[in-house]
Amino acid sequence: MSRRPEPRRMIIGGEEAVVVAPEEYERLATTRRQVGAQGARIRVLKHELQQSLDLLEALESLLADIPHGRPGPFFDGGGGGEAGHQAASCVRCGLLELIHRGPSAVTRAPRGGLTAL
How does pLDDT run across 72-96, given as a tens digit for each residue? Predict the structure, then answer.
């Protein structure tokens, strides 16, 4: 296994500098760009996560206004249930349960919608 040569240190204009081979510099520059891009992506994801949390909080507040015990809508037969089968005995409780289960309880449907597991 080949060892990389140790970088040489020099003093230039009163400042310490490190001399590296051009290949090593390019590798370091590439790594720096990759880390910068990942940092930007993390900032975007953090912003999207905060928006999602805000949306869930607003949804939870709206659900508080729905009377407890109100029956859910009937399936039309296309949602995996039998035609005429009620979705939930209580819409409010069903939606709150889905929210509190967290992200692992929801997956992306093919068209980008959300589907409960």
Answer: 555 444 444 444 445 556 767 777 7
Which residue do the tokens 């069903």 mark? 94
Calculated CA dihedral for residues 92, 53, 105, 80, nearest 10 degrees: 60
Distance CA 68, CA 28 (A): 60
The answer to whether 95 and 63 have CB atoms below 8 angstroms apart is yes
Alpha helices in the chain (DSSP H): 22-63, 91-101
pTM: 0.48
Which tokens belong to 59? 């949804």
- The answer to whether 116 and 98 are in contact (CB under 8 A) is yes
| 30 CB neighbour count, 10 Å cutoff | 10
Name the burial class of residue 1, with classes exposed (0-12), middle (13-18) and buried (19+) by CB atoms within 10 angstroms of its CB. Answer: exposed
Strands 106-108 and 114-116, sheet pairing: antiparallel
Name 84's Cβ contacts closer than 8 Å, sequence gap at least 6: 74, 75
